[in-house]
Amino acid sequence: MRYSKYFIPTHKEAPSDAEVISHQLMIRAGMIRKLTSGVYTYLPLCLRSIRKVEDIIREEMNRAGAIEILMPAVQPAELWQESGRWEHYGRELLRFKDRHDREACFGPTHEEVITDLIRKEIHSYKQMPINLYQIQTKFRDEIRPRFGIMRGREFIMKDAYSFDVDEEGANLSYEAMYEAYTRIFDRCGLKFRAVEADTGAIGGSYSHEFMVLAETGEDQIINCTGCDYAANLERAEVKPSETLPESDVQELNPIIEVATPGIKTVEEVADFLSVLPSQLIKSLIFVVDGEEIAVLIRGDHELNEAKLKSLLGAQTVELAFERVVEEITGAPVGFAGPVGLNIRIVADHALKGMRDFVTGGNRKDLHLRNVNMKRDFEVDLFGDLRVITSQDSCPRCGRKIEFGRGIEVGHIFKLGTKYSQALKAVFLNHQGKETPIIMGCYGIGVGRTVAAAIEQNHDKDGIIFPIPIAPFEVIILPLQMHDTGVVETAEKIYTELLDIKVDTLLDDRDERAGVKFNDADLLGIPIRVTVGVKGIKGGQVEIKLRSETESFFVPINNAASSINEKVEALNDSPK
RNA sequence: CGGGGCGUGGCGCAGCCUGGUAGCGCACCUGCUUUGGGAGCAGGGUGUCGGAGGUUCAAAUCCUCUCGCCCCGACCA
Q: What value of ipTM does the predicted structure carry?
């Protein structure tokens, strides 16, 4: 491609609303332009990167035995009502009506559509396993789109769905996808980690997220330094600590009421009473599928709502409004406690060993000291409810854990029969018995993968693309466009590279050297070939890798083959 | 949805408080010079100051409404 005939509108400055580096660089490098909140045009450079990611995805999905299809973006409401998600998916689902006033939505995901297809076409165990995938534009009306195409509302996604006759087959399908995803992100040249994850709105029983490691990632992840356990923070299990014997009940101290005027937060109360936050118990009132429930957490711990949700098998979990808290506890927010409450109480494991602790007094400006379980209140259900901390050890092997951040680029789920049951996707098994199909689903954010790659690979001058997903592999910079020797040499190498199928951009603009160098750095094309009068005199051109500071010279005559060697070397060396 | 902030040329911003001819840098166009790390000089074009209404002799500026965008929050009492 010739730069002068192409469309790469670069900018020196990033717009002020671009927060993260990948967003800034994608705007500056002329990759994306915003149309409206969370909705972007992919300019040619970005599209080339996206296509390269898509090609890698296709190759690996096909290798894993999946089959590409393309489903409609617009979906009828009836299907979503049938699965129950018309109600549950919430405001993220973009809904509208057609001219006949029929309700529809723009697909944010395709479990309903694919399951509908499968229930109509698959009736026998002989037709499975099967895995169908597509690469398509989705729309999710995010609460707060941000970071450019990292969290857009409209985005390109690869989604795959597997259908199996039994659990064992479903596990094989899942593992095949796990391997395919590992290969995909490896081939994209990304540093990533697969972590155990919460299943969220898609539902299902078990899942892994593929996280590109980056400081600016929206997700917090933990991993064990001793074994291969890694998880999303919202999922990470906490090993229950040793519980103390419960035999010495008689030695418990009597409850003391303490006036705590205006003192509400854990820090304030602990400070006021000169105790550690770990001696306090936070009592949080939640509305769980319409039922009010008290949740008890140690003062220095943090509740993990996802865990609460799964412990109770709930659809919705919401912190109660102030008014509700006042009705239930008889006190303003900040003074809730378990003593005397007549609603269900669930508590984190960490409370088991505690005695003589501090809680709210269910009265304005009152806390209680020396509160104890069993004597003063009963816990209906214990569970793992808190967020893991740096003091905790690995739930599998007990060794030290590390915290980090990541960008979720892929997510694989075991769905079980959630959708096949709701939509009655059944088949006849060997015994001729009607059985629900076991499903799995597997997503990759294609645009986000490109953004994540930039987030992970850049410097002060711009992007440093991993070569497998770079829009071009090589950029040629003829520095003096008025010098026929320079131009001819650049053209010669350009033609030779195109002949051997190296993706090459020739910067044939009549610009000053500095402009070309800076743009080349900004665009992040992995290999730069500089053709200048100086080099030509010695019969040489200069080659520099974007990822390195040193350059070297090669003879013009075999420049193309030297460059090709570099291209292949870079392609073969995953990060 | 709650809180905060911002809308002035393509981009980045000043001007607004204290009303009085709309400005700067980059970008863009023309010419000359320059040409291995975002050139210099000269000339030029570019705005319904987000929109509507109001106050006023006069509004980018003050007031009201509205739209859009961004940030934080929407769980930890």
A: 0.89
